[in-house]
Specification:
The chain is of the alpha/beta class. It contains 9 helices and 9 strands.
Length: about 280
């Protein structure tokens, strides 16, 4: 692991790092904020998964989470959204290929060689975080935005024993039922839609996956709400399954980081309450 940049903020350290990933076969970048803490202390970890076209930098620069993390004593980790670099396959569109890994393990070529983002988020990067940072990996939470909200929900639902808390901002709740999801899952996983279900939050809930609690914020002025995000499908799936969930429609907010930054500190505190020892 190599440190690229380092800043002191709110008494803690905000760093950006790169490492060689065994999962993707590429160099990957990520950011970590570590609040001030006593020597030898181990801190809970909150993961933030970003959306289409984003890198680790979007939330790092616009997220407004550090004051809340410093107050609560929570490490904040922001990975990239896909493998990148020379030789990594790409697509001309913004919603597939580099910047659009959808947090799946691709099975279709040429994507399968590098686009192993599920394994990267669930295994590869956590092992590095556990080794190099003062992280208590028994106390992990996960959140994300849009494509990253889809990632947070599905990773959280599949790994309920690993994550004590799960939230999301404007998530793609059912890739099986929207154009973004159909393109991405079809391209990465092939035409057999049964293989898509582990990457669909509504399908996972329907199939029996559960969380202790769930928090979702969605702007009602989001231009992607009706056709791509379809928050109502998640509300219906949770209601049918008896899954505890707080799903809030926030009036006037869109899909941007103006929306995310307005509520991210609140999400940090929500996670911190569930990650406390």
């Amino acid at each position: 692991m190599e440190e690229i940049t380092r800043w002191v903020s709110h008494g803690g350290v905000q760093g950006v790092y790169r490492h060689a990933s065994a999962a993707t076969g590429t160099e990957m970048r990520f950011s970590v904020f570590v609040p001030a803490h006593a020597a030898g202390a181990k801190l809970p970890v909150l993961w933030f998964l970003s959306g289409l076209t984003c890198t680790h930098a979007n939330v790092t620069e616009k997220g407004e989470y550090r004051a809340a993390c410093a107050e609560a004593g929570v490490i904040f980790v922001a990975p990239d959204t896909s493998p990148r670099g020379e030789g990594v396959p790409d697509d001309a569109a913004y919603d597939f290929g580099q910047g659009a890994g959808f947090y799946v393990d691709a099975t279709q070529m040429p994507w399968a060689a590098n686009f192993q983002m599920r394994r990267y988020i669930e295994e590869d990067l956590p092992a590095l975080i556990a080794d190099r940072f003062p992280a208590d990996m028994a106390r992990q939470g996960i959140t994300g935005h849009s494509m990253g909200g889809h990632g947070a929900l599905t990773i959280g639902l599949r790994g309920a024993g690993r994550y004590r808390s799960v939230s999301a901002f404007a998530p793609i709740v059912s890739p099986l039922q929207c154009a973004w999801g159909e393109k991405a899952l079809g391209g990465y996983l092939g035409a057999n839609r049964a293989l898509w279900r582990p990457y669909d939050a509504c399908a996972l809930i329907e199939d029996g996956a559960r969380l202790p609690d769930l928090l979702v914020d969605q702007g009602d002025a989001d231009g992607f709400l009706a056709d791509q995000l379809k928050t109502g499908l998640l509300a219906l799936a949770c209601k049918k399954a008896g899954q505890k969930a707080t799903i809030r429609m926030q009036p006037g907010y869109d899909h941007s980081y103006y929306f995310i930054s307005s509520f991210l500190a609140e999400h940090v505190r929500w996670h911190a309450a569930r990650l406390s020892a």
